[in-house]
Amino acid sequence: MTGYIEQREKEASELRLNESIASSDRPKPPSAVASTLTFATRALLRIKHVPEQMFDVTVFPVIFLLMFTYLFGGAIAGSTEEYLQFLLPGILVMTVAQITMYTGIDLNNDIRKGIFDRFRTLPIWLPSALIGSLLVDVVRYSMASVIMITLGFALGFRPEGGLMGVMGAIALILVFSFSLSWIWTVCGLIVRSEKALMMISFMVLFPLTFVSNVFVDPRTLPSWLESFVDVNPISILATAVRGAMHGTVTTQQVILVLIVSVIMTAIFAPITVYLYRNKK
Amino acid sequence: MEAAPDWAIEAKGLVKIFGKHRAVDGVDLTVRRGTVFGFLGPNGAGKTTTIRLLATLLKPDGGSARIFGHDLSKEGDEIRSRISLTGQYASIDEDLTGMENLVMMGRLMGYGRAAAKARAAELLKAFGLQEAAKRQVKNYSGGMRRRIDIAASIVVTPELLFLDEPTVGLDPRSRNQVWDIIRALVGSGTTVLLTTQYLEEADQLADRIAVINQGKIIAEGTSSELKASVGTGTLSLQLVNAEDRPRAVNILEDKLSAAVRSMPDSTSLTAQINDSFLVADALSELARERIAVSDFSFGRPSLDEVFLTLTGHEAAQEAQSEEGVS
């Protein structure tokens, strides 16, 4: 009797299998927008399932802000409150710039795990796989910014540029970070392991963010260092962001940030796509 | 038979070089539409690289190929809309649930949101993964992982499916489930190219088999053709005492007038021989000489023996050159 039931169940499951295989018609390949949104959805679902990955945009900013405000405030500006007005815009730039490197790490993981190969055999507009997750990264950067500015406000940060100035500053950070991410996607495609990738990102970002005008006024530096600080993209962004928050920003400062962003995207986005398509 | 054969894959002289290593070294391949083609070879033989070339993931350094008549180097998009690849490692997002993975694949194949969900549910049911639909794939067992992986490959039934070692590391039950899925796919008209190290798998599923070693195809044909190419019959026997073996080899070679091979263990012998009378004769001679036999068989060679015969003489070199490139 049980044998009979098992037999019937087996037949039923075979029937389902055959039907499910035979029943699929071939839809038209998705549009670039549809596939980009699908990849963005994937990134959001990953946040839902692995919320630990939000540590970098929630806990980092808090630690950084508290640490540097109280560590350097007294020594550099005489009081923490005064220093905070100078420091917060810069440290916001530094924090977001540092968390851009996770973009490359995620891509690197995809490659090593094999899902990358599946995406590459799909009839889709390939850059959508990257742009989809970069768009979600932009959401993450916004979160980091909001958390940091809110905490800063509680500690006594008073932006003279008002809400519009702060929003403009965040917009500049997002544009810049989106462009900076393309550098990490290139690295993520070239470098073999996650560890090596972390090291490279650190070696680039650490000096770039510290040897800038984030913490100190470059006029106090030796002249050779000052000239480096002046052309450092992080300084260019920090200057514009500080200006926007305190209402002193110039058109030239904003345009400079946009130019740097366009240059980074124009160079590294095509390289990323090329490597993505032709990865061995 | 069809009047005009319709080829799913026609490859000529495919070459892929990694540094100095010729991973694929002049592979010719024709696969008829609607059949299963088995690609058999040891680790590092070039199976995966060949599949990656044919699936547009790698650019060949030489040779050419057509997939359903479309040129591999010029019509990548045409080809990509007809093929699907299930790699050696689960090529799905392990942090997502089974359902989310299949819906994502459906969307990427061009289904609308509702259609993608319906299709995902249908596949999960058909593949016996209904209960696991809302669990993250990283918590799946090996067999479930394989099934969700194949399900992701056939969200839209492909015309050509590449399966890279689909049952490696699976228990027999899961392996049979995967085989059932492959047979059902072929029944619906999909062409399947699968790589395997398991001869039984090739024997069970494949219409034609190519044996690949060191980037070259060293034999190709149906399972019976390959077996016949080695010899129509094989005598295998095992002695009770290892020290009898040299004497046994002499007696057998004398009686069978065929080469007798000593197997890696200390007591086994095999010989390629057709004539059952000679075999009987040889066995009684062993008995007269008081050489005890614990086990013997006489019949068509297994695919294992074919494989060992074909690749055996190259095995030594390979041990040196194997660099983990597969």
Task: Please provide a written account of the structure.
The complex is a heterodimer of chains A (280) and B (326). Chain A is mostly helical and 280 residues long. In chain A, 81% of the residues lie in helices and 0% in strands. Chain A has one domain. Chain A contains 12 helices and no strands. In chain A, helix 8 runs parallel beside helix 12. Chain A is elongated and about 85 Å long. Chain B has 326 residues and is of the alpha/beta class. Chain B has 2 domains: 7-228, P-loop containing nucleotide triphosphate hydrolases (Rossmann fold, 3-Layer(aba) Sandwich), CATH 3.40.50.300; 233-299, Alpha-Beta Plaits (2-Layer Sandwich), CATH 3.30.70. Chain B has 12 helices and 14 strands. A 6-stranded mixed sheet of chain B has the order 6-7-8-3-9-10, with helices on both faces. In chain B, strands 2-1-4-5 form a 4-stranded antiparallel sheet. Chain B has a 4-stranded antiparallel sheet with strand order 12-13-11-14, covered by helices on one side. The radius of gyration of chain B is 23 Å and the shape is elongated. The chains are: A mainly alpha (280), B alpha/beta (326). Chains A and B meet through helix 1, helix 2 and helix 6 of A and strand 6, helix 3, helix 4 and helix 6 of B.
Biggest interchain interface, per-side counts: A-B, 39 and 53 residues
Overall structural domain count of chain A: 1
Q: Main sheet of chain A, how many strands, which sense, barrel?
A: none
Low-confidence stretches of chain A: none
Q: Which structural category fits the helices and strands of chain A?
A: mainly alpha
At the third CATH level, what is the topology name of the largest domain in chain B?
A: Rossmann fold
Q: Note poorly predicted spans of chain B.
A: 313-326
Distance between the termini of chain B: 36 Å
Q: Which strand order spans the largest sheet of chain B, edge to edge or round the barrel? A: 6-7-8-3-9-10
- Give me the secondary-structure category of chain B: alpha/beta
CATH top level label of the largest domain in chain B = Alpha Beta
What CATH architecture of the largest domain in chain B do you see? 3-Layer(aba) Sandwich
Sheet-strand content of chain A, in percent, reads under 5%
Describe the sheet with the most strands of chain B. 6 strands, mixed
**How are helices and strands ordered from N to C of chain A?**
HHHHHHHHHHHH
Helix amount of chain B, in percent? 25-40%
